[in-house]
Specification:
There is one protein chain. The chain is mainly beta and 293 residues long. It has one domain: Neuraminidase (6 Propeller), CATH 2.120.10. The chain has two helices and 23 strands. The strands form six sheets. It has a five-stranded mixed beta sheet, with no helix packed on it. Strands 2-23-22-21 form a four-stranded antiparallel beta sheet, with no helix packed on it. The two termini are 20 Å apart.
């Protein structure tokens, strides 16, 4: 077991105002988080929506990530499997899919206004880039993205049979509002986060820190492939250097499968907001908070 523990506290559940009976009144499978303009922006892996929440206790509201996208939850074989939300220059957000099946290679590019309102959201075809990334691993399964001065980092989530990694991508096309291409891939960096009770810790999200390092969330999910879920036996946060060296890693308690993180660096500490996926469509996802000193 890891020697240090960080306490998680629930701030709220991710309840949503609905406009149709087919919509679920909450987000169940939260998988990516970005905070800005006094709002929390969330994607989930079983919806093709961006859900925007106020700072306070009010409900969120769903917005389609591309024209014609449904506002209701999708079946496992149909879902776009959005797994990350990252800020890009020019007030844009990147909605990152996992790429774990051919259907899961459609992302989204969201343009925000000066007050954080969604001006436009469109589908982003990521197949050419993902075909190149798939050459670096036996099972592509992307789970987070973060833009640093070095470029756009993507977290490749491993499992019992596949190692984890960080992929560095040149963001030049994304910064111009275009889909990235195969030649935007720069390099792969091996990533090893250790094990808890024999289950490997694997990355679930990334967030850029001021010094160029990456804040990373991780889960110990007992599964042998990139498609099926497993029991989550542990969760952790880590600071990882661009070389893949783990500078710090501490476990979270109680255990939630944390899948999205935003951090504020203040007085030598990291103030964290996190979203988690309960892996049960009948349970609302929580918004959690913690301080890492």
């Amino acid at each position: 077991m890891l020697p240090e523990m960080i306490s998680l506290h629930q701030r709220r559940v991710l309840d949503v105002a609905v406009g149709h009976p087919s919509e679920r009144p909450f987000v169940a499978a939260a998988s990516g988080l970005w905070v800005g303009h006094g709002q929390r922006y969330v994607v989930s892996d079983d919806e093709a929506c961006l859900t925007v929440f106020p700072e306070g206790p009010g409900p969120g509201r769903r917005l389609p990530l591309w024209p014609g996208a449904p506002l209701h939850a999708l079946e496992k074989a149909e879902k776009p499997d959005l797994e990350g939300l990252a800020a890009l220059p020019g007030g844009r957000l990147l909605g990152l899919p996992s790429g774990s099946t051919p259907r899961r290679r459609r992302g989204a590019l969201v343009s925000l206004g000066a007050r954080g309102e969604v001006l436009r959201s469109e589908m982003l075809e990521l197949g050419p880039l993902f075909d190149r990334l798939a050459q670096e691993t036996s099972e592509l399964n992307l789970e987070g993205a973060a833009l640093t001065p070095q470029g756009l980092w993507l977290a490749q989530r491993g499992n019992r049979s596949t190692p984890s990694a960080l992929f560095l991508v040149n963001p030049r096309r994304l910064e111009q509002g275009q889909a990235p291409a195969a030649d935007d891939f720069v390099r792969a960096v091996p990533l090893a986060l250790g094990e808890v009770n024999g289950v490997p810790l694997t990355p679930t999200d990334l967030f850029p820190l001021k010094d160029g390092a990456l804040l990373l969330t991780a889960a110990g999910e007992d599964t042998a492939d990139a498609y099926n879920d497993g029991a989550c036996v542990a969760a952790a946060v880590a600071v990882v250097e661009p070389t893949g060296r783990v500078r710090r890693l501490e476990q979270l308690t109680p255990v939630h499968k944390v899948e999205g993180v935003h951090a504020v660096e203040r007085d030598g500490a990291l103030e964290l907001l996190l979203v988690a996926d309960p892996d049960d469509p009948s349970i609302p996802a929580p918004l959690l908070e913690a301080t890492w000193r």
